[in-house]
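Continuing the series of single-chain predictions for the mutant panel. This is the parent chain; the variants come on the following pages.
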Amino acid sequence: MSLLEKLKKSSRTSGAEILSESKFFSEKEMTKTSVPMINVALSGSTQGGISSGLTVLAGPSKHFKTSFALLMAGAYMKKHKDAVLMFYDSEFGSPQSYFESFGIDTTRVLHTPVTNIEELKFDLVHQLTEIDRKDKVIVVIDSIGNIASKKEIEDAENMKSVADMTRAKALKGLFRMITPFLTLKDIPLLAVNHTYQTQEMFSKAVVSGGTGVMYSANDVWIIGRRQEKAGTEISGYHFIINIEKSRFVKEKSKIPISVSWDGGIEKWSGLLDLALETGHVVKPKNGWYMAMNPNTQEELSGNLRAAQTMTEEFWTAIFDKTDFEKCIEKRYKVAHVSMLEELRLETEPSIADE
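Parent structure:
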């Protein structure tokens, strides 16, 4: 028996494994959503998606945060027919029809109302302890941005108006406790949160809830938006997903997603501007677009208006016949390169070898 095997056998932790054989690294599952640029925001690739760990969706009110969370949850439940959604609700702003609009079977949703952080912590930790790794569970908290601490509620009951200094500490404790469970049991958790503006000369949006949220999260989005108008009427919104933190995507990346009142999330939104930059779509004349293989100059479509490019046929041709996916990954995905110059030089082929 080798020393490594001996140490593994004597470990008092049940999950101890040789790193190259560890299921916590080799069996990390990703669930692809139906919107390519959402997958890019989650993984840096249109073929990636949501994975285990904490993902925080932060932004002001009415910024589609819960909708993005339910889109991901719906994709997970569609992939796993026996999956269960644990929905912790502190805002009560999502009716049953909202879940159904994202294809979520509400008979597979455990709705748990919570009134304070401690109540959320006790129930969630207990549930995660009882779940096995083979169980398919996804968790959504809506939201951590508006949930009170137990002390805050008790102070109100006792007519005390002192500032609550325990809330950030309670949230930090919550995420410190649950983070290991999410990875060990391969569970994605989506937490809706709020943002606030700093008081600097050039203010910026900051995720609320203290440092604990940022430390524990694998991914943090700060969502912005601008209006889309048809004449003087608002017809929808253009959302910008700002990658504040990510294990897979280059931080500070900006991912555009469009939402219309009539059609909901536009599946192919965000791709056109990117393809124009990479040369996979060209403008033969103003207001018209054409799919193109920039390496061979092969035309992959006729001249189309912008709205006509938002089809599966148009984008399938580009992804199947060009290197567009590689260009997307090069732009957004975190590259894993050697951190030591000496190791890089040892593994790279020399000019003589070539």
